[in-house]
Specification:
Layout lengths: L9 H8 L11 E2 L2 H10 L7 E5 L5 H8 L4 E6 L5 H10 L4 E5 L15 E6 L5 H9 L8 E9 H8 L9 H9 E9 L4 E2 L6 E8 L9 H13 L5 H4 L7 H7 L13 H11 L1
Helix pairs in contact: 2-3, 8-11
Length: about 280
């Protein structure tokens, strides 16, 4: 795929623009354009969509998204060294790539996007989870985006899709699965990246549900799960003791044994508890 868009291979781009990945920016560049195209395809049909990409670096995934037919890509890049390489891609795809120089945590990204929107990114490791949580907790639901296709460290990806009674199950799984269908669509070894990280990576695809999977007050759900998982080794009758008077009776009324631990309780039961407490 190195010549499909008439642009040079990514290794040449990195050499030309002297783009050494910086650890403090959470950078690990994916240089195989076949892999970046595969990630782009895992996001589904892009032809009628604006695609938001955070941390494009030298533009491997950006090129994949454009080659796969994205209506427009809005790429947010904090590292000014990458801007000349991204400008070359913009020239090759006139009118289809907008590059924003800045921090994705600080910019009003919605102002630059027109629905329908998909978010596809090889997220910088140091901000990946924070960005995910922001996208999962907008002021209104359904959100601006219809799906998220995001690369994380494999352990984080496993936490997003985890089920009860597994090692990775916790608040991130509940938050993601409350409002989305989530699945791992690809796993990548360290050697796929430059420089190679110490861990495997995985791509997670999250599809926004029209409404939350089970009804409840989201703020109450967040409070309950925070209390339960902050003391996950304790029985819930102890970890939730300060939640409401007569907590044991409330737990029993929704079918949760007071002696259960947080990792044994599924999303539906937590939502039922949130309704009972509210």
């Amino acid at each position: 795929m190195g010549t499909i868009d008439g642009l040079p291979p990514l290794r040449d781009v990195i050499r030309t623009h002297e783009l050494v990945a910086r650890k403090q920016l959470g950078q690990n560049f994916l240089l195989d354009l076949n892999l970046t195209a595969k990630i782009a395809r895992s996001a589904g049909d892009l032809s009628g969509c604006d695609v938001l990409e955070v941390g494009p670096g030298p533009g491997g995934l950006t090129r994949g998204l454009l080659a796969e037919g994205a209506r427009r890509v809005v790429a947010v890049e904090k590292d000014a060294r990458c801007l000349p390489a991204l400008a070359e891609i913009a020239d090759a795809y006139p009118g289809r790539l907008t590059v924003l120089h800045g921090d994705a945590l600080e910019l009003d990204l919605a102002a630059h996007l027109t629905a329908p929107v998909k978010i596809v990114a090889n997220l910088p490791y140091n901000v990946g989870t924070e960005l995910l949580i922001r996208w999962l907790t907008p002021a209104a639901w359904p959100p601006l985006w219809s799906s998220l296709t995001l690369m994380f460290q494999k352990e984080v990806a496993e936490r997003i899709v985890a089920k009860p009674r597994t090692d990775h199950y916790g608040r991130l799984a509940l938050l993601a699965q409350y409002r989305c269908d989530a699945k791992i669509v690809m796993t990548l070894p360290p050697e796929a990246f430059t420089p190679a990280p110490k861990v495997h990576s995985a791509v997670v695809h999250l599809t926004a549900l029209p409404q939350p999977r089970f009804p409840c007050d989201f703020k109450v759900l967040q409070r309950i799960t925070a209390m339960a998982f902050n003391q996950r080794r304790k029985m819930v009758r102890a970890s939730l003791k300060g939640l409401a008077p007569g907590i044991e009776g409330i737990l029993e009324s929704v079918g949760i044994p007071p002696t259960a631990r947080a990792e044994e309780i599924g999303l539906e039961a937590f939502c039922a508890l949130a309704r009972a407490v509210a």
